[in-house]
Amino acid sequence: MLVLTRKVGETIWIDEEIEIVITEVKGDQVKVGIRAPRHVDIIRGELRKDISDSNTEAVVKDLSLFDKLK
């Protein structure tokens, strides 16, 4: 993991397409802006975990329905 220190208004680039901008720092919160092409999916970490958990739950339900059909 790369750890960087940035001030408000400073940026971080990922490859040639993605720019991360520090827009505000207030207490222990940091607001981050992200400029990226539309084809790049951007999602908060906690939502990614929720989606993964939901997908796992759906597969388990599907398997239990499949077992009932046997």
Automatic annotation (TrEMBL):
It is found in: Cytoplasm. InterPro entries: CsrA, CsrA_sf. SUPFAM superfamilies: CsrA-like. Pfam families: CsrA. Keywords: Bacterial flagellum biogenesis, Cytoplasm, Repressor, RNA-binding, Translation regulation. Its main location: cytoplasm. Belongs to the CsrA/RsmA family. A translational regulator that binds mRNA to regulate translation initiation and/or mRNA stability. Usually binds in the 5'-UTR at or near the Shine-Dalgarno sequence preventing ribosome-binding, thus repressing translation. Its main target seems to be the major flagellin gene, while its function is anatagonized by FliW. Homodimer; the beta-strands of each monomer intercalate to form a hydrophobic core, while the alpha-helices form wings that extend away from the core. HAMAP family: CsrA. This is Translational regulator CsrA. It comes from Solibacillus kalamii.
